[in-house]
Write a structure and sequence with these properties.
Belongs to the TRAFAC class OBG-HflX-like GTPase superfamily. OBG GTPase family. The protein is an alpha/beta fold and about 325 residues long. It has a six-stranded mixed beta sheet with strand order 10-11-9-12-13-14, sandwiched between helices.
């Protein structure tokens, strides 16, 4: 399994512009034959392109310096130097780009094919023919090319998903995702099985939506404990949160689990905690006291949250839940 890397720092430099050329034609009766130096070529730029085939910033762990080609120098006979090739760097869709020095966001690549120039190439210098005037008919100087822009930038990946799965480790998120989509998360009965966000596409009739299973939250996540911050950044873009709660957990009441996770969300980002949530009670096949399910349903619906009880193992309740999610995602997208 590819390691999930969602932050990277890279150095980018646009190509320098080529120097202008000092040259003269060989003509009788014209001082020095007349100026004939061509301009230097423009340096290439460094351009980021969002690629839907990439899902991690792992490529930037080892290669961190990217330089575009410099422009060629001008030549005689007023020939302009060849421009440098642009350097195209592919990044995952959902990459936010910041200038390291200023901390300012330069751009946000949210759709496949989105482009962002992060270091412009320098302009080519003018050749001596550009400086000829009626009184200065044989200039013996030219301009040097301008240097290309250079800077360190930070890439930060925020997943693009319609629905984010939240809940304590072991709430059953990975099993649920593998049940409703073709995604294959690691599944085992211990916390933090999901060590990187996993995307899956769920389909209801002819409508599909993207679901992200993100590493489990623990108390203190907003302060960076566990996999906290790494997790929370990825749910920022989702339209809807599916809050999964293990109803078979004897150590924690559903209400308590719900309040603790929402407290973490609010401490990290009040905006995030205001996203619409659907509460899903999981592992009902392992619940011996069925009144616990009814009690949870009553509690969450009284708080204004839609509540569904499911078993990802037997499939009970899943079709009804998926249809409800699809309708809500359509509403959020304005479809």
């Amino acid at each position: 399994m590819a390691k999930f890397i969602d932050r990277a720092k890279i150095y980018v430099k646009g190509g320098d512009g080529g120097n202008g050329c000092v040259a003269f034609r060989r003509e009788k009766f014209v001082p020095k034959g007349g100026p004939a130096g061509g301009d230097g070529g423009r340096g290439g730029s460094v351009i980021l392109v969002a690629d839907s085939g990439m899902h991690t910033l792992l490529d930037f762990k080892h290669k961190r310096h990217f330089k575009a080609e410099r422009g060629r120098h001008g030549e005689g006979n007023k020939r302009t130097g060849k421009s440098g090739e642009d350097m195209i760097i592919k990044v995952p869709v959902g990459t936010v780009v910041k200038d390291v020095e200023t901390g300012k966001i330069i751009g946000d690549l949210t759709k496949p094919g989105d482009k962002l120039t992060v270091a412009k190439g320098g302009k080519g210098g003018r050749g001596n023919s550009a400086f000829a005037t009626p009184t200065r008919r044989a200039p013996d100087f030219a301009e040097p090319g301008e240097p290309g822009e250079e800077r360190w930038i930070e890439l930060e990946l925020k997943l693009i998903a319609d629905v984010g799965l939240i809940g304590f480790p072991n709430a059953g998120k990975s099993t649920f995702l593998s049940r409703i989509t073709a995604a294959k998360p690691e599944i085992a009965d211990y916390p933090f099985t999901t060590l990187r966000p996993i995307l899956g596409v769920a389909k209801v009739d002819d409508f599909s939506f993207v679901v992200a299973d993100i590493p489990g939250l623990i108390e203190g996540a907003h302060a960076g404990k566990g996999l906290g911050h790494e997790f929370l950044r990825h749910v920022e873009r989702t339209k809807l949160l599916l809050h999964l709660i293990d109803l078979s957990d004897p150590t924690r009441e559903p209400e308590e689990a719900f309040e603790k996770i929402n407290k973490e969300l609010h401490l990290y980002s009040p905006k995030l905690s205001k996203k619409p949530q659907i509460v899903v009670g999981t592992k009902i096949d392992a619940v011996t006291n069925k009144s616990k399910i009814e009690k949870a349903k009553k509690y969450f619906e009284s708080k204004g949250y839609p509540f569904f009880a499911i078993s990802a193992v037997t499939g009970e309740g899943i079709t009804e839940l998926l249809r409800y999610i699809a309708e809500k995602v359509k509403e959020q997208k304005g479809e």
